[in-house]
Write a structure and sequence with these properties.
The structure is a homodimer of 449-residue chains.
Chain A (H helix, E strand, L loop, with lengths): L3 H13 L3 H9 L3 H8 L4 H10 L2 H9 L3 H10 L2 H10 L2 H10 L2 H8 L4 H10 L7 H4 L6 E2 L5 H11 L8 E5 L5 E6 H6 L6 H4 L7 E2 L4 H11 L3 E5 L5 E6 H19 L14 H28 L1 H6 L2 H4 L1 H24 L8 H29 L4 H31 L9 H24 L2
Parallel strand pairs in A: 1-2, 4-5
Antiparallel strand pairs in A: 2-3, 5-6
């Protein structure tokens, strides 16, 4: 969608028109996401003007798509009588994200706009650490009592539904706030109006604690195809819900992060074009240096074998091919395992199954590549013995790479380190030097050097 | 969750108990996903027995979590009077997935169980190619007319809602089936019962064509935080909807595939432990061979420079470090760009911006690494001139790797090839040989060999 034209029209309507209908018509056909995209191109004054002229629910949703600084700037410059209901309408997880991103004093100013009980809730939400269930949840859910019937529940939804983020589920709590059942709105509507919620609610509830890691939350929600998940405290009291749209964002973000880590750079916190060259440099140089230092010993290995090398210079021809193949095998295994660990398919307890599987596959791969390596060496017209050296080396290198790449990700996961730090470049660097040692040791043994 | 105990109890209830209540109590506390996990450990006879004793909606949802072969086996062995309503209750996208996975003759047998109009719909759905919007959509949505009021809409939902996959949105169509508006159930419930749907429905609809790629569908749905997206034909007639749970699966699958591709192996179609060693071998050897052939020319390059090498054997010490660093830089860039292309953040039109950004970052990285490389060479006590050769080479290699890795993913995306085929191993292999040429050419020029 191209926003240039509609942006011009909106600017015109804001500046020149005395007829509010004109602006209304323009904005009416846009979704909050689209309005937020248009907003990004407007002057600060126009941004504030536009938000103040939107219906509160639309304005709130539009604000949710903007960056925290812009959200704060707009809210700060609206009259309190506008800012206060607007802030209250924004879903609580978005409010928390904004408040945590801006300066604490600025956050306090905004908090003062909220009624006291809601302010307490927000303050409570702000205590949950990033990347946990607590940080994803919203308190804008609908709860009900087990003795209500369907008709009463619908009346309740009509009363409080405006503020709820999702009305697909109604959470049944007891007098102590404990979560005792979940009804879907579908069940309520399909049942007869006088059925008690207690009779249609699912009693065996899947809920998550506030300190669960967001990746695990995403796995649970996607496994059961839920639209929302309840979050409970240690006493099983309902404290919030996590909706599927936030989980979709989590899944996308986590995949992007793992991707960038696997490529051997620290994950970018912004989209590509928003990241400055200096920032790209900073994110990349760190790992390049680690890898450089890790790889620097290859030079010592080669220096140590320089006698062998100067006696048979042909041995050097195969260095990149041998280390390269070892690195390629390692990359294949590491990426597969890192992803499988992330998706919860593989656990540390599976270590020996994984090693067995990878070594057996490694034997097949090593034998195939060994044969081809022999043919390649013969094609170059080198001595038959060198042919044997390279083909036996490649088998041993593939097996060694398989073992290292099978163990390392699982071990790191066990130690609660993100296994994605074993990036493709890291594992390649690790098996490069050891591959050289295998190669030259084989050469010395077989060629009696 | 450990299913061993409940599985034993269910087996006992199926075999020994005459009291159906016992089985009911056991299954009542389980969700369809959990029942499907229990099913996987049961004998084929018990599977059929259990499914036939579940309420139809639960049985249908449980079946959806099973593999196509198992689904077919169970449906085939149920009485037609049970299988027919059960098959009709399964959501249409799941039915299509199953029918496409089993033998056409088996599929025909199942299709014969369906009423004619529904069979036609399923046959139509089966024509959409894999990985498109059409293949993800279900026809189990709720449509309504613009002149209905809220009360009529709710009555309609009560009547047909049992078969709908999601009731959060009601799709308003005109007499020709054209999609003219969308109401959320929330809006209907919050509005007064006599409000016409036409007055509350969003008219400016975001819909997707049936042939849109699933990755793009996922991007749209996650951008707008929708729970479902309507799919229309070329005449804007509503033909189905795509629900967010299927999109979550798509996002997870696409990320897993891209992950495995980036690691340099063909994506696995099954979870890790379900993939046999032979299958792992097949998925990996293909790319290893491609990479081997791609890398084999490094041996020729080194052979060509063997004169230089035998004159100054120290030059060989730095081969793995130089090619390694080139490969690492390339991996960082390629993973970032492949992900950014997948998320729609970067397009082919941005080519020159990307090249400029990567070359400028490359200069910073190359200069830093060049300095460190010089120090490293000096530490090993090699000739100062060799120090200059290696540090100038690393700068040129980093710049060259940056250029290649900036251009290649964008070019492939433009040519409608998945850019993830430029895996980390592939780009590493590509820049390995060219890195050697850069290195030895620099050596020859600077050392006057």
């Amino acid at each position: 969608m191209d926003y240039t034209l509609v942006q011009k029209e909106i600017q015109f309507a804001l500046h020149n028109s005395k007829d509010p209908q004109q602006l209304f018509d323009l904005v009416y056909s846009l979704r909050p996401y689209d309005i937020s995209e248009v907003m990004k191109g407007l002057s600060p004054e126009d941004q504030i003007d536009l938000i103040s002229k939107l219906p509160i629910p639309t304005a709130a949703e539009t604000l949710e798509y903007l960056e925290p600084e812009m959200q704060y700037h707009i809210l700060r410059h609206l009259k309190d009588s506008v800012a206060s209901p607007l802030l209250k309408q924004i879903s609580s997880d978005a409010v928390v994200d904004m408040l945590l991103a801006i300066h604490p004093l600025q956050a306090q100013r905004l908090l003062d706009l909220l009624p006291e009980d809601y302010r307490d809730k927000i303050n409570q939400l702000m205590t949950y650490p990033e990347y946990t269930a607590g940080s994803l949840m919203t308190v804008d859910y609908i709860s009900a009592r087990a003795h209500w019937n369907g008709e009463q529940a619908l009346q309740h939804i009509r009363k409080v539904g405006h503020e709820a983020e999702i009305i697909s589920y109604i959470y049944v709590t007891d007098i102590r706030g404990e979560l005792v059942g979940i009804c879907s709105l579908k069940e309520i509507i399909l049942a007869s109006p006088d059925t008690r919620l207690g009779d249609i609610a699912t009693k065996d509830i899947i809920s998550v604690p506030a300190d669960m890691e967001q990746e695990e939350v995403a796995n649970i929600l996607s496994r059961y195809d839920f639209y929302a998940l309840p979050v409970v405290d240690h006493q099983n009291r309902l404290i919030g819900i996590i909706t599927v749209d936030d989980v979709v964002d989590v899944i996308q973000e986590e995949a992007t992060e793992d991707f960038q880590k696997m490529g051997g750079s620290s994950p970018l916190s912004e989209p590509y074009f928003k990241t400055s060259i200096w920032e790209l440099f900073r994110k990349r140089i760190l790992w390049l240096l680690v890898l450089f230092i890790g790889g620097a010993y290859t030079a010592n290995v080669l220096e140590k074998f320089s006698d062998t090398l100067s006696k048979i210079v042909e041995l050097s021809f195969f260095i990149p091919l041998l280390t390269g193949t070892g690195g390629n095998t390692a990359s294949q295994i590491v990426t597969t395992l890192v992803r499988a660990l992330g998706m919860g398919e593989v656990k540390f307890q599976d270590l020996f199954r994984v090693i067995r599987k990878e070594l057996l596959t490694g034997i097949l791969l090593g034998l195939s590549l060994g044969m081809i390596m022999y043919l390649r060496a013969m094609m170059m017209g080198v001595n038959t013995n060198i042919g044997w050296v390279v083909s036996i080396s490649i088998l041993v290198i593939v097996l060694w790479s398989s073992l290292v790449s099978a163990v390392l990700p699982l071990l790191l996961h066990r130690l609660r380190v993100d296994p994605a730090v074993v990036s493709n470049p890291l594992i390649t660097t690790l098996v490069d030097g050891t591959g050289l040692i295998i190669y030259f040791t084989t050469a010395k043994l077989l060629l009696h050097l």
